[in-house]
Amino acid sequence: MRRFVIGRARNLIESSRQNCRFQRPLLSSSQSPYRFLSSTAVVDSPSSSSSSSSSSTMAPPVTLDTINPKVLECEYAVRGEIVTLAQKLQEEIRAKPEAHSFEEILYCNIGNPQSLGQQPITFFREVLALCDHPSLLDKSETQGLFSADSIERAWQILDQIPGRATGAYSHSQGIKGLRDTIAAGIEARDGFPANSDDIFLTDGASPAVHMMMQLLIRSEKDGILCPIPQYPLYSASIALHGGTLVPYYLEEATGWGLEVSELKKQLETAKSKGITLRALVVINPGNPTGQVLSEENQKAIVEFCKQEGLVLLADEVYQENIYVPEKKFHSFKKVSRSMGYGEKDISLVSFQSVSKGYYGECGKRGGYMEVTGFGADVREQIYKVASVNLCSNISGQILASLVMSPPKVGDESYESYSAERDGILSSLARRAKTLEDAFNKLEGVTCNKAEGAMYLFPQIRLPEKAIKAAGAAKKAPDAFYCQRLLTSTGIVFVPGSGFGQVPGTWHFRCTILPQEEKIPAIVTRLTDFHKSFLDEFRN
Questions:
Q1: Residue 280 burial (CB count, 10 A)
Q2: 302 CB-contact burial (10 Å; exposed 0-12 / middle 13-18 / buried 19+)
Q3: Phi and psi of 312, rounded to 5°?
Q4: Of 94, 108, 101, 186, residue with least CA distance to 495
Q5: What backbone phi and psi angles, to 5 degrees, belong to 161?
Q6: Residue 481 in contact with residue 466, Cβ under 8 Å?
Q7: Distance between CA atoms of residues 445 and 94, nearest Å
Q8: Comparing C-alpha atoms, which of 147, 114, 113, 109 is closest to residue 130?
Q9: N or C: which terminal CB in the chain sees fewer CB atoms within 10 Å?
Q10: Is 343 exposed, middle or buried (0-12, 13-18, 19+ CB in 10 A)?
């Protein structure tokens, strides 16, 4: 019977082939169910056969001339040419330790704390471990290895995750219970209500920034007001999404102050060029400049956005990094609500990340944006964009909830957690002060006070001879200086030209993240190099 069925099937298939070969009607291009670029039939010919033989000499299908020009336009200096060279030198040292006059590369280019020796917060990692391996919760030994509050928190979080599976997709905005925790943390911080439906959990703050640029930018006629100097994520994202960066310059002479008069001036200039301003980016505490805005300054910024109908994009990822007693962090949401402005008065998006602060969990890729002041129809579109990426990673979501709800007084982990947090932040403050003082002792270098964040952005006045040498090497003068510094000392700084600066001035960005015991060596190497560099190029 089986042979009969197989034989019958073969006959039917062969009959079908014959019918297709001889009876199928030819369709004109207008009748075709498919769309073709050309209706001309391809037949064997000398030209078509010869094309295969010459295919090896054909141009590649993708070249710099054929890729999206927006990709060519965007730049990200934090991982640019200087860092590529540093990685090459590191490989040379690894292969041959005596290859250079220095034994290691000291990465002062990026806010990546744990790569430079900062230890993670124990409570956060205990909770993550238990959530990722929940069978540990059933073992008797766990009670002796993990704190009671980390075990309790892990149970709470797992109960909020469908299937208790950290390897599964979540809701596109993030796990509801974790968003509830974050909203409660925001409310406790600000003293004003927060709604978990306003929270979108993301893989760090960067995807949230991209999402908002994607939403706001319609064409090159749409402008985004950005601080100069700025974190290159913003210029890169605006370029990728086809918008126009409208710069406003921070006032270096007043500690990188943000003047509303400058905002108004740049807004009017943009309007005169036919640019429609959509949003204002404010980074507080500042990156790369390290300033912390006063509450009065923030109120003036909120008022400006309200009057001009701009979305306020508040980058607040360094909110825990405040190093001077006279300054405090105030979220823009808190400031706007304290002014009596609610959902219908101002559109505000706040960004937060687990990568910065005292936690430094860059590789876990956790963060969120709080979106307020948008209509339900626009919110649906934001959700749609979020859902295209399915969801952010679950470990990052968990960490974001822990960052906004750490151990409290009375919890078993509170004392160890507080000691770890305070130890990291006080050490960062000391490192910032040491580097600030060292920069200000260098000839031709001035550095503003490090009030917050993780960076210093000193101005360097270079001799004319050095500027000409940079031009001959086809490099910006600050990039020329940073490259020479790297090849002479192994220290990696980022040229200020990668962040934007007042034309005719030169800067570099230095993180305060190398471990405290390495800071004196950095200062010594930098001081010796700087003196020899100036001696070489002195006018």
A1: 24
A2: buried
A3: -95, 115
A4: 108
A5: -95, 125
A6: yes
A7: 33
A8: 147
A9: N
A10: middle
* 202 three-state secondary structure: strand
Residue 338 CB neighbour total at 10 angstroms: 16
Peptide bond into 193 cis (omega under 30): no
DSSP string, 467-516: HHHHHHTTS-HHHHHHHHHHHHH-EE-EEGGGT---TT--BEEEES-S-G
DSSP summary character for residue 518: G
Distance, CA of 157 to CA of 485 (rounded, Å): 48
State the residue for tokens 């990291």: 424
Phi-psi region of 283 (alpha: psi -120 to 50; beta: other; left: phi over 0): beta
SS3 58: coil
Rg of the chain over Cα atoms, rounded to whole angstroms, equals: 29
User: Strands 348-353 and 367-372: what pairing?
Assistant: antiparallel
Concatenated DSSP letters of 100-116: SSSSS-EE-SS--GGGG
The answer to whether the CB of 220 falls within 8 A of the CB of 231 is no
Tokens representing 529 are: 């190099």
Return the beta strands (E) in 16-136 as ranges: 106-107
Short-list 244, 240, 248, 309, CA closest to 274: 244
Contacts of 343-346 with C-beta under 8 Å, sequence gap 24+, read: 343/372, 343/373, 344/373, 345/306, 345/373, 346/302, 346/305, 346/306, 346/312, 346/373
Full pLDDT tens readout for the chain, 539 residues? 434 334 444 443 344 444 444 343 333 434 433 344 444 444 444 444 444 445 567 778 887 777 777 777 766 655 678 888 888 988 888 888 887 888 888 888 888 888 888 899 999 999 999 999 988 888 888 888 899 999 999 999 999 998 888 888 888 889 999 999 999 999 999 999 999 999 999 998 999 999 999 999 999 999 999 999 988 889 889 988 999 999 999 999 998 989 999 999 999 999 999 999 999 999 999 999 999 999 999 999 999 999 999 999 999 999 999 999 999 999 999 999 999 999 899 999 999 999 999 999 888 999 999 999 999 999 898 899 888 888 899 999 999 999 999 999 999 999 999 999 999 999 999 999 999 999 999 999 999 998 999 999 999 999 999 999 999 999 999 999 999 999 999 999 999 988 888 889 999 999 999 899 999 999 999 999 999 999 998 87
Residue type, position 162, single letter: P
Q: 403: which strand partners? A: none
